[in-house]
Amino acid sequence: MSRLLRRTMTVLVASALTVGTLASPAFSAEASRYVALGDSFVAGPLVPDHTGSPAGCLRSTGNYPSLMAADLGVDEFLDVSCSGAVTDDMFNAQNTAVGTNPPQLDALNEQTTLVTLGIGGNDVGFANILVDCLLSGSTQPVNAPCQDKYTHEDGTDQLQQRIDETKPKVESVLGEIANRAPNAQVIVVGYPAILPEADGCWPKVPLAKGDIPYLDGIEQSLNSALADAANAHGATYVENYERGHDVCAPRDARWVEGVIPTKPAAPVHPNADGMQAVAQTVLGSIA
After folding, report:
1. N or C: which end of the chain has fewer CB within 10 A?
2. Active site residue 269
3. Whose CA is closest to 231, among 186, 183, 180?
4. CA dist., res. 88 & res. 69, Å (int)
């Protein structure tokens, strides 16, 4: 039963899972070319309607890059984001369940005027972490079994180590973006608040009470690493971490769906309202 639950959760989650210093060129509406790069939090799996190729990337016409492109009225828009993407998939082809996505950086050229990047969560392993924590929390609603699992006896945090290893990978991507699209304003988009600050909403989202602040802190640490990487490379970092719209929020206020979505979206991923909120935040950062 445990194996079946793990398999089911893995498929569900993995099939979908402060503005920084502005130094990159300003965006121009004239002869504009916008390229969106990133993972499922960019692609918008199961948010209506799916579009693009390969189908396995699960891109949505309702994701924040599509909403931004329509609002800006860009001359050319390329959304090459793909569910499941890691930083390596910026440089190399990514195999999906249905088709292969070319290296995302190949979409860039000197005519590109705007680039958004949302990446890093899969490098840290958010999908598998979530499955592990949901499984342990489903039988242990108190304490912090997930934190215990990822913390060594000497106090070293495995997830923080992964974040530390991910940061230079993101910096490498940003360096290559600058090489391939030297005239573009580059925006790194942070991950939205997935969990509340404390307590949670067990059993709707069966995470142990003690693991809620731990996992929330891990996500904030990843966002901080993304902000540091952006600032180090003259890109703009956009923070989307707004409280009150997480998986435990009321349905009308929720921007990130829970394990069992109540609006069209992949489990533990942004819904259409969340994508709209991100689009507005990112649009506000464009020079």
Report:
1. N
2. yes
3. 186
4. 26
